[in-house]
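Lab notebook: predicted structure, single chain.

Context: the supervisor wants predicted structures on file for every construct in the current expression panel, including those that have not yet been purified. This is the next one on the list. No modifications to the sequence; it matches the entry in the shared construct table.
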Amino acid sequence: MTPPPICQNRILIVDNPAIVDGLQVTALTEENMPVEHVQSGNEALSRLEEGFELLIVPDNVDGMPVADYLPRVQRRFPKTGVIVVTTPANVDLGAAALEAGATDYLVAPTTPAATIAAVRRALKLIQMKNELVVLRQTVAMANGFDNLVGLSESMIKLKETARKLAPTDISVLISGSSGSGKELLARVMHHHSRRRTGAFVAVDFSAIPEESVARVLFGHDEERSTSDGSIESLLEKADGGTLFFDNVDRAPISVQKKLAQFLRDPTIITGATQIKRKIEMRVMAATSQDLTPMFADGRYDPELYRLISEMKLHLPPLSERPEDIELLIDYLLRRWQEESGRELVTISPGAIEKLLAYRWPGNVRELDNCLRRAATLCRDNMLHTQDISFFGHGGPDVVVRREHRMLHTRRPSGRLDDTQRSIIARALEDNNWNFTQTAQELGIGRTTLWRKVKKYRLTKEPSEIEA
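Prediction complete. Output recorded below exactly as produced.
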């Protein structure tokens, strides 16, 4: 069951003369904290469906110690805080309630001021806890494998391998053309590793002037100041986390050799006393070109290459997985809607056809920019063919004929790639043809799922139809 929305400062009290009299409940009402009463713990569980921020209960509820009652509340209403009211003779029950998950406990009788202070403190703790939960959920959603959108065979294999590598400390070199999502893949793997609580530090060698790379990476002791605080190098910031080298093919050769030396012995010299400090981190890197041909003319250090590429992953360009484009359209439009706070924009079949016929030299990043531009400027809440425009990549080979596009979706045997069809069919069966659950599991929208069901002519078997 989905927990109910929490209403501002609403308080529910399990009625008990000792509580009502001893807490000076009228003081809460005067402080604009609406209080409502129920007669039992079971009734409280029913009323909490309406959404309360705080539940106040005695140390004995429906004939049981409150510590035994609390799990029933927490299981169904994890966002609701609980204050337990006890007496001087039963203080141990209040302490036990704290261990069982209560927000706080009070010993009655008490003063109106003490009651108000305790309730305010509890409401603040509840708010902070709920905000932290939302933050964690947001981070998890932003870094989940669902964000690697695609049901093509190449993406399925990539995600399977990435899931296996994520918990390890093996260095990973991610290759792929610009805009394919290499940093996103690295962030997802970091989030699913034992280093998720550490920093993810990204270093883009294409964005740092060559003369500054060494200073940014390693720092300089002479720039440290005890009065202003020490200047951390990026290597120090990544301690305990993940260091991600983007565009590692653009690293100057002098820096490559220093990095190779560091990765062999991950220690740096810090502070005015020149103390050696060991850095413990994972390394991932990304490149848009093959590094091995650069060995011959001395443009790349083979030792650094070996150290950053214990395993290699390749992100295929969008032109090689056109069957994923429609899924990406749905995902990117929903993400735009969440970020912008605007109404959800749908897309017409004609606009989808236009997007499917484009080669996407800028990959997912270009598709995202195209959809954001169209969604921002469209006149209604549906994208039409005329709303779709392509900027920045010209030339006669940009738009591909549909016949050529279809060839890319066929296997060598000539049969249409049925990987996506089988995945959707299996997910529908696993979820008993519940479209909402299936769409959530696949990371796509209900409309996109419905179009796929029609396209692949998927039907529920007669034996599976409920009576």
